[in-house]
Amino acid sequence: MAPQDSATAPDGATATPASDISVETAEATAARVRAARAEIGRVIFGQDAVVDQVLITVLSGGHALLVGVPGLAKTLLVETLGTVLGLDERRVQFTPDLLPADIIGSEVLDEDETGKRHFRFIPGPIFSRLLMADEINRASPRTQSALLQAMQEGEVSVAGTRHPLPRPFHVLATQNPIEQEGTYPLPEAQLDRFLMQVNVDYPDRDAERQVLLATTGTERARAQAVFDAQALTAAQALVRQLPVPDSVVEAILDLVRGARPDAGDADIVWGPGPRAAQALMLGTRARALLDGRLAPSVDDVVALAQPVLRHRMALSFRALAEGRSTDQVIGGLAETL
Fold first, then answer.
1. What does the pLDDT look like over 246-302, one tens digit per residue?
2. Alpha carbon 200 to chain centroid distance?
3. How do the domains of the chain map onto residue ranges?
4. What is the pTM of this model?
5. CA-to-CA distance for 97 and 266, rounded, in angstroms?
6. Cα separations (Å) of 262 from 20, 74, 306?
7. Is the dihedral of CA 11, 2, 23, 302 positive or negative?
8. Given 3.40.720.10, 3.40.190.170, 3.30.110.10, 1.10.8.80, which CATH number is that of 243-337?
9. DSSP3 helix / strand / coil % (the chain, rounded to 5)
10. Which residue ranges are recorded for the region named Disordered (predicted)?
11. Beta-carbon contacts of residue 5 (< 8 Å; ≥ 6 apart)
């Protein structure tokens, strides 16, 4: 087994060694996570891979970028996730005229009964445990950058004063890959803050039949809460305590380092940094827990390679002109593990 790091748990506590994990506690948490997945599946049809990847992201303590055309239940997924995980959820529709203060909040000048004036901070919608940033690429870079500190540090700064965000805190952003008019590409620094880019595709015929029958009648299925914030935080801490075999650590390093320009592929312009390896390390643990296993395998690394790496690398114009995609490059690297 690989030695465990002294990483900090989502609630700020230091993770305990893997040997101290109670098998009963881990199995109970895994069963609860699978119950949450099943509860989401009562509302979201035909998006099993998407649901799993978003759950893995949240269990890892990270943020996800959902990329798909309109009408594929991305908003419904976030709302359902908030209900099932017991997280207060807020939605912000990103538009070109959206300002950073519209997300973070602002200070107003108040006057008390004695006539003394002071500034009072009014929190914005970012002060929630689950923030949906709808069509995030429609806002200006200045507004997009307002999320950087929050996503990385779990706090925001207003007028030189730091304001901590609720824990746990997750951003699920959506993006339309087709309509590019009036949009601003997300900077690489912000893309790297997303643990995964989850591509949301069209459902198959059977799943779409389920959608038609379940959503056009007089009643619709309602999800029930399975977690609360405290239980989810405990599950996130447990994920960080799961032991990781040396073979998985080496597979993560081989994959991430092989996706960089200096690895020999001339078509790669820039590649993933160490944060990608950290995301894979946490993601493989969370995927193992979701499947009821207490340690990840190389198969978990292969399964998460594309959603973790696809937004952390870019190919040359020549490669794109030849029809080569980042998913193809990542898939080729994953086959060698």
1. 999 999 999 999 999 988 888 899 999 999 999 999 999 999 999 999 999 999 999
2. 14
3. 11-241, 243-337
4. 0.88
5. 40
6. 40, 37, 20
7. positive
8. 1.10.8.80
9. 45, 15, 40
10. 1-20
11. 15
